[in-house]
Automatic annotation (TrEMBL), chain A:
Source organism per UniProt: Zooshikella harenae
Residues of the Nitrite/Sulfite reductase ferredoxin-like domain: 53-109, 348-396
Limits of the Nitrite/sulphite reductase 4Fe-4S domain: 119-273, 411-547
Keyword 4Fe-4S in annotation: yes
Keywords: 4Fe-4S, Heme, Iron, Iron-sulfur, Metal-binding, Oxidoreductase
Full protein name: Nitrite/sulfite reductase
Pfam families: NIR_SIR, NIR_SIR_ferr
Automatic annotation (TrEMBL), chain B:
Source organism, top-level taxon: Bacteria
Pfam (any one): DUF934
InterPro entries: UCP030820
Name of the protein in question: DUF934 domain-containing protein
Source organism per UniProt: Zooshikella harenae
Length: 552, 164
């Protein structure tokens, strides 16, 4: 993974000093709340319902064992001994003290971490496929481009006060695991017929109040033009994006208002001035950054592992876990293992300090000391030898990481909701837990198969409810918490936005509602169909009929 | 005497700032007038013996000044709110596209903590609100010693300048 050099270290150290000074001036009354607000947000610091919340960047989800141990240490020293992994591959502390945040940032800097631009109206952490570099279906490793964008966007002087936040995602595999169609800019890294590297560029996707699927504005942008083209898009957005209404300020509203063709024309016109200018990528730079992501020292292993086959036959529990939590690796004899942070009654994406340290140990023991955070809020060990999977699984069991539910109904994407977040209309965590409790029969859960359940506590959609196969949105009805259900969303290659089922429900009936929906699926599915396929074939009406007949 | 920050120092502001200008009014020797009043009749200012500048708001298009770049001693860009970032792009277009080399002044709601970014986008003069301490704000100009990306101050990005 990327290692800091003297330049990176200096920049992060100067940021710590800058934020220490800003915090000091705020505490002395020299900065007003309004003046301090964007400064603290651009350091990931929110003022939440009960305490500040600090969001720390995990650039494109890559984190080392050493960094994970530091996160654990900080959680004990400055917080309540746990962290929350977010849907943007970052990590959050829910209980830091404002005056201690500069000290936390100084601690993070010792392991090459920071909280730069994890919030605020600026370019945020670039996200990607959690299986980048190891996936069997990968065409191009997106991580070097993520790092190139990280450096370009860090303290970009022109784009620190955009109309609204700005999120970029890159995918380089056949399967889109980075949800690029619902980002402000989505990039598909690919090679053209001549073998040249480049990107298909989408703009104007996003969730929140006005969910939209991104629009293609360039079918193949050669690699060297990446930064100049991004700069052109950002400049058009910075100049013409709406600033009069924060709910209409995202780039998707501008793209929609102008129309894709007019937006593309504006970007092209701007780009003519920037193209081939100094920000044009050099081969030397791409090579330099790519070297940080070279393959680890893989052992020469057979494709079929007899030890693994034996373990799978002998232990059905291991087999369950293997079927759901292990993914094909591009190198023979290796596998990708996902550690589930979705055990029942654990807030989705939360990890205790002990779990963090255990994850660091497992990464060192089994996976070259590296971990990835997925946007589904799980941890990934990307380079595990197949004959080590059984031992890894046993260790993961001990630390509550081995719930065999990746991609299943109980692998819920969920925001912290009304338990923590000041924006939320309703709690989300108790809904997740109640549904996990209802679907605790593993055979039943595995029989239901691939199903994304996404829960947001408000229409800001941090839980990505629009792109869940089943999405749940917390709403406020005259002061009471209610839940709206949507069906048919998807965040993958076949991206789509869910449709609202009907009137919202009280919290206590939500497990029944989900059960009814699943019953309709099971009654209608053909042998090959996943939930989303059946939904697309039969439409929303049978679900509506059943749910409102049973739960009124 | 009002002050501005220029060339990393706090100095007297020698310009008179007109929030509006009516044709025929006698201008001070050194004047900054609204862009719309300037563009209404640019030739009338050719006889002005002193230094003339214009000021833009964040919704203005800097491209309209392309024919007049060389006769303007100052271009000031107003920040109606420090969270309105359009002025950063306007500045870069003036400097990097239109080749403006005179004084580029940030006025309005600009603060200590934005000065570094403003400087990088081509501003070389800053007029803070009167209640803000310009001496303290000077520190904000040099918050960072290194930047990754190129901008108006250093067009070459770090990857083209690095030693190793």
């Amino acid at each position: 993974m990327y290692k800091y050099d003297a330049y990176d270290k200096t920049i992060v150290a100067e940021r710590v000093a800058q934020f220490r000074d800003q915090t000091q001036r705020y505490l002395e009354g020299k900065l007003t709340d309004a003046e301090f607000l964007p400064l603290r947000l651009q350091n990931g610091l929110y003022i939440q319902r009960f305490a500040p919340m600090l969001r720390v960047a995990i650039p494109y989800g890559m984190v080392s064992a050493k960094q994970i141990r530091k996160l654990a240490e900080i959680s004990r020293q400055f917080d309540k001994g746990y962290v929350h992994f977010s849907t943007r591959q970052n990590v959050q502390y829910n209980w830091p003290k404002l005056e201690k945040v500069p000290d936390i940032l100084a601690e993070l800097a010792t392991v090459e971490m920071h909280a730069i631009q994890t919030s605020g109206n600026c370019i945020r952490n670039t996200t990607t496929d959690q299986f980048a570099g190891v996936a069997a279906d990968e065409l191009v490793d997106p991580r070097p481009y993520c790092e190139i964008i990280r450096q370009w966007s860090t303290f970009h002087p022109e784009f620190a006060y955009l109309p609204r936040k700005f999120k970029i995602a890159i995918n380089g595999a056949k399967q889109d695991r980075a949800a690029v169609q619902v980002h402000d800019i989505g990039l598909h890294a690919q090679q053209n017929d001549q073998g040249e590297l480049g990107f298909r560029v989408l703009v104007g996707g996003g969730l929140g109040r006005t969910p939209m699927i991104g629009t293609e504005i360039c079918d193949f942008l050669p690699e060297r033009h990446l930064l100049t083209y991004l700069e052109a898009i950002l400049r058009v957005y910075n100049r013409y994006g709406r600033r009069d209404n924060k709910y209409k300020a995202r780039i998707k509203i501008l793209v929609k208002a102008l129309g894709a063709d007019a937006f593309r024309a504006k970007v092209e016109a701007e780009w003519q001035h920037l193209k081939d200018g100094p920000q044009t990528l050099t081969e030397a730079e791409v090579t330099r950054i790519s070297q940080h992501f070279s393959s680890p020292d893989y052992a020469d292993l057979p494709v079929e592992n007899t030890q693994l086959q034996q373990d799978l036959q002998q232990d059905p529990n291991f087999r369950h876990w293997y079927e759901r939590n292990v993914t094909a690796h591009k190198v023979p004899g290796y596998a990708i293992a996902t550690l589930s942070l979705k055990a029942t009654a654990q807030a989705p994406g939360d990890a205790s300090d002990q779990q963090l340290e255990a994850a660091a140990d497992l990464a060192e023991q089994f996976s070259f000391g590296e971990i990835r955070v997925s946007h589904q809020q799980n941890l990934v060990l990307a380079d595990v030898q197949q004959d080590h999977l059984y031992t890894l699984w046993q260790e993961a069991l001990r630390f509550g990481f081995a719930t065999p539910n990746i991609g299943l109904l109980t692998d819920v994407i969920c925001c912290p909701g009304g338990d923590f977040c000041a924006l939320a209309n309703a709690k989300s965590l108790p809904i997740a837990e109640a549904i996990q409790r209802r679907f605790d029969d593993l055979d039943y859960l595995h029989d239901i198969g691939d199903l994304d359940l996404n829960i947001s506590g408000c229409m800001n959609a941090c839980g990505h409810h629009h792109v869940g196969h089943i999405g749940i949105l917390g709403v406020d009805k005259k002061g009471a918490e209610f839940y709206q259900v949507q069906l048919g969303g998807s965040a993958y290659n076949d991206a789509s936005l869910g449709k609202i089922l009907g009137p919202s429900f009280a919290r206590d009936v939500m497990p029944d509602v989900i059960t009814s929906i699943i019953d309709v699926y099971l009654a209608h599915r053909t042998s090959e169909e996943l939930f989303i396929d059946t939904y697309r074939r039969i439409g929303i009406q049978p679900f509506k009929d059943r749910v409102y007949a049973s739960n009124n | 005497m009002p002050v501005i920050i220029k060339n990393q120092k706090v100095i007297s502001d020698t310009y008179t700032f007109y929030s509006s200008y009516t044709s025929g009014d006698v201008l001070a020797e050194r004047s900054i007038i609204p862009i719309d009043d300037f563009l209404a009749n640019p030739t009338q200012f050719e006889q002005h013996s002193g230094s003339l500048g214009v000021w833009l708001d964040s919704h203005h298009e800097p491209e309209v000044l392309s024919s007049y770049i060389h006769q303007l001693a100052v271009i000031a860009i107003n920040f109606p709110s420090f969270t309105d970032g359009r002025g950063y792009s306007i500045a870069r277009v003036l400097r990097e596209r239109l080749g403006y080399q005179g004084e580029l002044r940030a006025v309005g709601d600009i603060l200590h903590d934005q000065l570094f970014y403003l400087k990088r986008c081509g501003f070389d003069a800053f007029k803070l609100h009167a209640e803000k301490d310009p001496e303290e704000a000077l520190r904000g100009l040099n918050a960072f010693s290194i930047s990754y990306q190129g901008a108006s101050d250093h067009p070459q990005p770090l990857f083209r300048r690095r030693l190793h």
